[in-house]
Specification:
Blueprint (H helix, E strand, L loop, with lengths): L1 H15 L2 H39 L1 H9 L30 H15 L17 H14 L2 E3 L9 H4 L11 H11 L13 E3 L4 H6 L4 H19 L2 H5 L4 E5 L12 H6 L1 E4 L15 E2 L20 E7 L4 H10 L5 E5 L6 H7 E7 L8 H7 L3 E5 L18 E2 L8 H6 L3 H14 L14 H11 L16
Parallel strand pairs: 1-2, 2-3, 3-4, 4-5, 6-7, 6-8, 8-9, 9-10
Length: 474
Amino acid sequence: MGKQSSSLVYQIFQHRFPATFKGFFYFLPISLALTTLLLIFIYISTTANVTKTHSQSTIYLQTLPSLINIDQTSNPPIVPFEDNEDDNDNLFADPSRTARLYRASQWLLGNLFGLIDGNDTNNKEAYHDGDIFLQDYKQMNKSLKIYVYPHSKDDPFANVLLPPDTDCKGNYASELMFKKALMESHFVTKDPNEAHLFYMPFSISSMRSDPRIDVHGIPDFVQNYVSNITHKYPYWNRTGGADHFYVACHSIGKIAFEKALVARLNVIQLVCSSTYFPSSYLPHKDASMPQVWPRGGDPPNLLTSQRKRLAFFAGAVNSPVRIALLKVWENDTEIFAHFGRLNTPYSEQFLGSKFCIHVKGFEVNTARVADALFYGCVPIILANHYDLPFTDILNWKSFSVVVHHIDIPVLKKILQGISNEEFAMLQSNAMRVRKHFQWHTPPIDFDAFHMSMYELWKRRSVVRVRLTPSMEFM
């Protein structure tokens, strides 16, 4: 049977196909071999060029330690990364990693626009699931109830516990604006039995600036506060504080529960400084809110054609990441990296740049993301392991570029690789989501206050323990 089959194939080959077609089969293996050799040659050449480029661009890794001796009389002190960061993520890591990381960046960029998994449509959407979000948001706005621990105006620490009487200003205004908005909202209830959550209204930023407390006294104040409400009220003891929350925008808030360790594991933290490194921050329990510099009026009218500069950053050099950014790009004509204050209004740079860089300083949180969105500038996130605000709602890939800090030397290549069409998509989505990064007095739907409330709504317990009449006392 085998011989007959072979004979049949031979006869078909001899009589059914012309000589030119048979010749094609003789040269096919040779053609494939030559093509393979050509591809290998191209790969080797490309890899060599990339490695050469990186060996030049990573000089900054070798020279950075000397930069730490910048004149400390005029600059803020340089602080190291947190002790518990992985050594592999350190900015001063082995420079030989950079070629691999560059290719990883190229993959990340492709994944950003859905070029790898073919899911291009989903990566263009500003929300993970807009329909579910809208439906759940409406239910939150209708149902969520917060019980606020009451405090009188005669309390010695009324400045810490009560909402401010004046307009909130400055870099940490989000914390006070949240409190002010909540106290005037329909979410507050005086009936603890219908409350989904309990708000401890102490303000970290106010404690920090109160000389009676100061930074070092914050853990003692919080420890005493928790002790007082557990003795005076029965609400904490039902869940061990798991249905309680506090708000902090200043990064010093991460030490608030240092002397109340059990409470730290249970209490919901709504914070601006949200990084995965501190053991006190647990993303499934806690939530990130945006740090916003309050601005009056409507956002400016934006025209993409006016953005002549590729990227922009200005700020204090107060971290190794910012040192690296300044060292590599301070003299570049397309990326404007500036140390210190600008002589011109910041708004001009935000409006004149396509991308605006958010760089980790002392902590991951700054108001630059909200600033960039306000002015229609696509944010670049240069802050590793940062739990981005509203990340379980918003698809950050659709309106920002997230870059590992080790890729600072190839930042321009990454940004230049984004086409005009891709940039238009990013900016269009940035315009869609910027309403979530603004505060209003009074609050309006979908602003920073309501989005923060929605984050709390998602973290409420589905089981509530009802108090008996004998337990209800104040």
